[in-house]
Amino acid sequence: MQLASKEMIVLDFSDYVLKNVILKYGFRQWIVFFSTLSVQLALHHLAGRLLKRAVEKKSVNMCICWMLLDLVLFIVEIFGWLAMFSLKMPNLMFLYQPKTLVPYMLVHLYEFLVVKKFIKQIHRERRIHGDIMLTDMNSRFD
């Protein structure tokens, strides 16, 4: 009794599935989808580098610039969501579902709060450092 065939059978479903998806949805939606994802990825990369540099230099202005860039990124991603909903794109990796919109917004809110607290900490450290400098200078002239 033979359980397996001696001949190798190779099934390639990727061409068939991709062909059906392209025929069903067309190319325009895919171009919009990948261009939106490319812009989002570039903005995320830029925002991450800017925030890293702001933390290294303890720069309030860079933190504020990051907040503005993150706001632009948030708006671009919301427009991406709206475009995907209006074009009725297939649910790729569950990115554009209404149930993932709320956690996404909460993550952005959390990032804003963390950077806001960091800015307050920088101001507090500068104020303490400035007060120490003033007392040192006053004690020298007494």
- Biggest sheet record: none
Taking all Cα atoms into account, the compactness measure Rg is 26 Å
How many strand elements?
0
The structural domain count equals 1
Structural class: mainly alpha
> Helix count?
4
Strand content: under 5%
From the spread of the alpha carbons, the general shape counts as: elongated
Helix content: over 70%
Spell the H/E element sequence.
HHHH
Give the terminus-to-terminus CA distance: 105 Å
- Average of pLDDT: 73
Enumerate the spans where pLDDT stays under 50 for 5 or more consecutive residues: 132-136
Secondary structure layout plus pairing:
Elements: H1 14-25, H2 28-57, H3 60-87, H4 98-141
Helix pairs in contact: 2-3, 3-4
Characterize this entry briefly.
With 142 residues, the chain is mostly helical.
Question: How would you describe this structure in keywords?
Answer:
single chain, 142 residues, transmembrane, membrane, transmembrane helix
Written account of the structure:
The chain has 142 residues and is mainly alpha-helical. The protein has one domain (17-141). The protein has 4 helices and no strands. The protein has helices spanning 14-25, 28-57, 60-87, 98-141. Helix 2 (28-57) runs antiparallel to helix 3 (60-87) and helix 3 packs antiparallel against helix 4 (98-141). The chain is elongated. The model is unreliable at 132-136 (pLDDT under 50).
